[in-house]
Design brief:
By secondary structure, this protein is of the alpha+beta class. The chain has six helices and 26 strands. It is elongated and about 80 Å long.
């Protein structure tokens, strides 16, 4: 193989694919990126056997061929080459190495044969639809913080993506929960998504999609089977991921519908107040107490080791007085996702989950379990 490619294009593409490669691997070939030169250009591919990312970039291919080299090493080499330089990649059958040349720099990397590189065959993906990149980004950004990291409940280690009929309209919904908080965001279902299976996209794939969608073009083509998902970006990047093989719990049951106490508060002022009073809370609990009376909200934290803090806010609240505690970090995570100037809290009692939204009927809804204070 003999290929010449622009450093900027190669670096951007390596940036997309090398992130999938784990730093420590028991299988040597999984530490490598596959480079294949053909009439179409230079194809780069990396996998960890659960996710596969592929991209083809423009290149001057003098001799077609393929090889695999350590992904993180070639990424670091190309990253350190001067801006605007041309990079030459050449393999030698005699030495089994790949030579990288750019200007006066020359590197020889140990290579493994292309034949050993695994292929994460997607198989048949019967359901396909296109979604605007901004919509996909929104579904992910507003739910991924609530993905569970608890490996025992593996079916919560991702975002549950499914379609559902709401008031006669079909919606595409993303849901994530870790048992303490739940995030649910919906949008009009894209054409072609009706009848798709409910799928759980794993945490690592979610993180990769989140990065790729930023410079992936205006829309993303999504293909789904019960076991795999393939996303094709307009930029030429393709990601295939296995899905979590499990049943997502019936999240509808934990979203309360009868919470009749309503608190409306200015979002930024509330978030800043929570942040200030939580400064002295212990890392163990991080509980902030919210005491609501007519038109008033008092936030307080008591920490036996370092003291106490209180702050008051003017709010819109007309129900009976209520004291309730929440994890400060969870409150800040949720208020950080809200888009409006206000936050609406629908409360019941100190022991019941609270619903948080921008406003009544907003497409994003959050549920937060209280803490004892």
């Amino acid at each position: 193989m003999r290929v010449t490619v622009e450093r900027a294009a190669l670096l951007r593409s390596l940036g997309h694919v090398h992130r999938v490669v784990e730093r420590r691997n028991t299988i040597p070939i999984l530490s490598n990126v596959l480079l294949r030169g053909s009439a179409d250009g230079l194809q780069l591919k990396a996998t960890d056997l659960d996710i596969e990312v592929t991209e083809t970039i423009a290149a001057d291919v003098a001799t077609a061929g393929a090889t695999t080299v350590p992904a993180h090493v070639i990424y670091d080499i190309v990253r350190k080459l001067p801006d605007g330089s041309q990079v030459s990649l050449e393999t030698s059958e005699e030495t089994g190495q790949m030579t990288i040349r750019s200007g006066r720099s020359r590197f020889a990397l140990g290579a493994l044969p292309e034949a050993d590189f695994p292929d994460l065959a997607a198989g048949e993906l019967p359901h396909s639809f296109s979604i605007a990149s901004l919509d996909l980004k929104r579904l992910i950004d507003k739910t991924q913080f609530a993905i569970s990291t608890e490996e025992t409940r593996y079916y919560l280690n991702g975002i549950y993506l499914h379609t559902i009929e709401v008031d006669g309209a079909l919606k595409l919904r993303a849901v994530a929960t870790d048992g303490h908080r739940l995030a649910r965001v919906e949008m009009e279902a894209p054409e072609g998504s009706r009848g798709m299976p409910g799928i759980i996209v794993p945490r690592k794939a979610v993180a990769e999609i989140q990065k790729l969608v930023d410079d992936g073009g205006d829309s993303v083509s999504i293909e789904i089977s019960p076991a795999k998902i393939r996303l094709s970006f307009e930029s030429g990047v393709m990601l295939i991921s296995k899905l979590i093989d499990g049943t997502f719990p019936d999240y509808q049951r934990v979203i309360p519908t009868g919470n009749d106490k309503r608190l409306t508060v200015e979002r930024d002022a509330f978030a800043r107040a929570v942040d200030r009073v939580s400064t002295i809370s212990s890392e163990r609990g991080r509980a902030v107490k919210l005491a609501m009376t007519d038109g008033r909200l008092a936030l307080s934290v008591n920490n036996p080791d370092s003291g106490s803090a209180t702050e008051e806010l003017d709010v819109d609240y007309e129900a009976a007085g209520l004291d309730i505690g929440f994890n400060a970090r969870y409150l800040l995570d949720i208020t950080g996702q809200l888009e409006g100037d206000t936050a609406l809290f629908k409360l019941a009692d100190p022991g019941s989950p609270t619903v948080i939204q921008d406003r009544e009927g907003a497409p994003a809804l959050y549920v937060l379990m209280p803490m004892r204070v």
